[in-house]
């Protein structure tokens, strides 16, 4: 099941379902999952035949299994903490005093992260729990249509676009703080969020038309096979085009744009601080600018951490897409599996790290969190982090 796991855990999982050509010129399409695994299982050669690079990159089945035994439990531990922390963000920003356009984008972003992380973690758990999971039609259906399509394609890609909308809204707020209420991203956040996830759903529908599930006999056992549909075979180039466009526009371009927006926001914050340093204004104007600046800094820190933890998985997918023979061939399949688990764990961390950014940088977030915490001990711990926010905000004010 190695190739199937490697394929379906990529951000653009649909690309892995395209034909994989074997050494004898045949195709692994039409095979059941165990047969496909055998066809691409990594082969180790003797040390005399290996180059210096191959000695580093080639992993044996035992080495891959050892890495898996360490990384899979870590992923479950990270998910156990990250998902509740992301849920905490949703609860806090849904409170009456936190409702705003930035809060709406934060809720939408965290919902997408929670969906993707939970569905993928559940898939991995089922893989470990079930005996020959590929013989269960229900598991294959969940893996293909729920975890991959609903989580990795629709929710994850949609969250990248939501993050860009939030960053554009914050950049405008820093540049024109007194006109932010009339900005379209601030006036209509809910319709825009619904439109983004709807667009992500529609754009990724190509994935559902590529194959169908079928139970076939495989060496006396029943296994699930993924059979290409007539629609795909009729015009495979069109499916390639949809997959490539979705991957580039919703994933790569979104993250690259986010990096540019983050740099522009830092520049705008410094420019704003220098421009208003010696300007006399009313107390209400100063308070409004201070609130917009602090909110922008908080969301900037959260978005940068999210992007940094998401980039390794994106780089892995870009490399595997540009050089499909490198990872999806026989030679480096074990290396791909190890890197796939590692980048997934980073993605899970990105689901929960936002909480600490909001907690440390936003006094308003802390106050709201304290008001809803049922335990006095937790309230005191959250209150103790106030000094960090005051220090960061005072440093920004003096720049």
Automatic annotation (TrEMBL):
GO cellular component: membrane
Coiled coil, from the record: none
Superkingdom, natural source: Eukaryota
UniProt keyword terms in alphabetical order: G-protein coupled receptor, Membrane, Receptor, Transducer, Transmembrane, Transmembrane helix
Entry annotated with the keyword Endoplasmic reticulum: no
A Pfam family of this chain: 7tm_1
Compartments, record wording: Membrane
Example GO molecular function: G protein-coupled receptor activity
Chain ranges passing through the membrane: 74-93, 105-126, 146-168, 189-208, 238-269, 297-322, 342-361
Membrane-related topology note: Multi-pass membrane protein
Record-linked PROSITE patterns: G_PROTEIN_RECEP_F1_2
Main localization (coarse): membrane
Boundaries of every G-protein coupled receptors family 1 profile domain copy: 159-358
PANTHER family linked: G-PROTEIN COUPLED RECEPTOR, THYROTROPIN-RELEASING HORMONE RECEPTOR
Protein name according to UniProt: G-protein coupled receptors family 1 profile domain-containing protein
């Amino acid at each position: 099941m190695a190739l199937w796991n490697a394929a379906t855990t990529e951000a653009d999982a649909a690309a892995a379902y395209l034909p994989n050509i074997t050494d004898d010129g045949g195709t692994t399409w039409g095979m059941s999952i165990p047969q496909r695994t055998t066809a691409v299982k990594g082969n180790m050669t003797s040390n005399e035949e290996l180059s210096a690079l191959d000695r580093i990159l080639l992993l044996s089945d035992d080495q891959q299994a050892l890495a898996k035994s360490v990384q899979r439990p870590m992923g479950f531990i990270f998910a156990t903490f990250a998902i509740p922390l992301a849920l905490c963000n949703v609860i806090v920003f849904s409170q009456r005093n936190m409702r705003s356009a930035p809060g709406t984008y934060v809720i939408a972003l965290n919902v997408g992260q929670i969906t993707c992380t939970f569905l993928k973690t559940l898939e991995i758990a089922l893989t470990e729990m079930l005996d020959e999971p590929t013989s269960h039609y229900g598991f294959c259906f969940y893996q293909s249509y729920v975890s991959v399509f609903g989580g990795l394609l629709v929710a994850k890609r949609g969250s990248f676009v939501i993050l860009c909308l939030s960053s554009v809204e914050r950049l405008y707020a820093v540049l024109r703080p007194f006109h932010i209420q009339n900005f379209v991203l601030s006036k209509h956040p809910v319709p825009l969020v619904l439109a983004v996830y709807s667009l992500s759903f529609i754009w990724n529908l190509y994935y559902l038309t590529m194959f169908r599930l079928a139970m076939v006999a495989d060496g006396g056992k029943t296994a699930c096979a993924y059979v290409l549909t007539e629609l795909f075979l009729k015009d495979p180039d069109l499916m390639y085009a949809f997959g490539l466009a979705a991957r580039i526009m919703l994933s790569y371009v979104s993250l690259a744009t986010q990096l540019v927006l983050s740099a522009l926001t830092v520049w705008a914050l410094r420019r704003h601080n220098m421009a208003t340093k010696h300007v006399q204004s009313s107390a209400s104007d100063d308070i409004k600018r201070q609130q917009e600046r602090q909110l922008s800094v908080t969301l900037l820190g959260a978005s940068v951490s999210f992007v940094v933890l998401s980039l390794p998985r994106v780089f892995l997918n870009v490399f595997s897409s540009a050089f499909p023979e490198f990872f999806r061939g026989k030679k480096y399949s074990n290396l791909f599996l190890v890197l796939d688990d590692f980048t997934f764990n980073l993605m899970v961390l990105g689901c929960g790290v936002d909480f600490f950014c909001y907690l440390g940088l936003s006094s308003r977030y802390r106050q709201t969190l304290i008001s809803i915490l049922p335990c006095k001990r937790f309230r005191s711990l959250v209150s103790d982090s106030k000094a960090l926010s005051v220090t960061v905000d005072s440093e920004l004010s003096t720049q």
